[in-house]
Amino acid sequence: MSTETSGSTLPFATNEKRDAEASKVVERYSLGAGVAGLLPIPLLDVVTVGGVQLYMLRRLSEIYGVPFSENRGKAVLSSLIGAVVPATTASGVASFFKFIPGIGQIAGTLTMAPVSAGATYIIGKVFIQHFASGGTLLDFNPPDYREFIKTQKEKLGMRSGGASTSGGTPAGGAASKGTATTSS
Questions:
Q1: Three-class SS of residue 68?
Q2: Which of 84, 122, 132, 136 would give a disulfide with 152, using CB separation of 3.0 to 4.6 Å?
Q3: SS3 content of the chain, % helix, strand, coil (to 5)
Q4: How many C-beta neighbours within 10 Å does residue 4 have?
Q5: What 3-state DSSP class applies to 5?
Q6: Alpha-carbon gap, residue 1 to 163, rounded angstroms
Q7: CA-based end-to-end distance of the chain
Q8: What is the chain's mean pLDDT, rounded?
Q9: Whole-prediction pTM value?
Q10: pLDDT digit string, tens, across residues 141-163
Q11: Measured between alpha carbons, how far is 24 from 60 in angstroms, rounded to an integer?
């Protein structure tokens, strides 16, 4: 396993172009996580979604020129996933239902895909906000993004169980970081 890879800054003319590219990455990986959620094998879907999220974090780190460490990335994702508890709890339950032949497998698959896509989208938007405001993996603090996460969940309709990957400029901000503008 790689311990440290330096973040290579891609040549973006403006912060808006960088943020737009980052938003495209988030949308792409959210779709990938949704597809991974369709895997019919219990727990393999959860592991695959985690891998998609880790790779998305690596790409966002590159875009923002933030040094990336795979071990630190896993730790940061784990701590952030704890802040998106309803979505991740639902994904664990959905994956478990896939153990039940027939209706359980269908219900688990149909639940896991949108929940995985929505959670990945929120995680990506949080890291865009964090990296755009000058943050790194070392100073990431999930509680700072509680309101931002809540706003993103509301945009996705995750409280009512729906998870669409449409979104716009984040309305919330981090407690200790400046607000960054992102575009979808």
A1: strand
A2: 122
A3: 65, 0, 35
A4: 10
A5: strand
A6: 33
A7: 33
A8: 76
A9: 0.72
A10: 988 898 998 888 888 876 444 43
A11: 10
Residue-by-residue DSSP string for 121-149? HHHHHHHHHHHHTT--STT--GGGGHHHH
Please answer whether residues 163 and 117 qualify as being in contact, where contact means their C-beta atoms are separated by less than 8 angstroms. Answer: yes
The H or E element that residue 17 is part of is helix 15-37
What is the rounded distance in angstroms from the CA atom of residue 146 to the CA atom of residue 46?
23
Out of 58-62, 69-73, 112-116, 172-176, the most confident range is 58-62
Q: HSE, CB side, 13 Å, CA atoms: give it for residue 172.
A: 21
54, two tokens: 């880790």
Location of structure tokens 């706003």: 151
Residues 52, 9, 131, 70, Cα dihedral to 10°: 40
* Residue type (1 letter), 27: E
Torsion, Cα 149 122 49 139, to 10 degrees, reads -70
Q: Is 174 exposed, middle or buried (0-12, 13-18, 19+ CB in 10 A)?
A: buried
The token pair at 127 is 């890291």
**Is residue 37 a contact partner of residue 112, using CB atoms and an 8 Å limit?**
yes
3-state secondary structure of 47: helix
Give yes or no for a contact between 109 and 38, defined as CB atoms under 8 angstroms apart.
yes
pLDDT for residue 175: 38
What is the helix (H) or strand (E) element at residue 71, kind and residue range? helix 70-83
